[in-house]
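Batch job 17 of 40 flagged for manual review because the log was empty.
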Amino acid sequence: MAEAWTRYLMSDLFDPYSAGIEIRDIDSRAIRVMAEVSIDISGQRSKNVETLKDIEFDYVITVCDHAREACPFFPAKKRILHRGFPDPPRLAETAGSQDEALVHYREVRDQIRTFVEGFPGTLDEVTRDLRG
């Protein structure tokens, strides 16, 4: 969702990439809640961080705690930041229905949008500089 929001809102400033620790299918609930805001992520594919290791990034932003802890080091010209968001699938595990599960996805979707809307200024704030 973070890559999609960045492409949608900031494509004139950024060329975002997203990747994870494990390659997985794109979550159908994430596809659904992004479609609700007219963003189609059904064509996105899961990528492993290893596939991006040769790209020189200005910023590297981790958005989940597990990724921050398990990712290999990616050098960044400007800053390496962490902005954690709750994991929608994990939140949805306790949902009593599909509609209830989607509430969690919508909340995280909207939190990510708010974060991305703060770019580029947000990137210059010290969220957490992982370089030390």
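Reviewer: the log was empty due to a logging misconfiguration, but the result itself is present. The beta strands are 57-62, 76-82. Unflagging and moving on to job 18.
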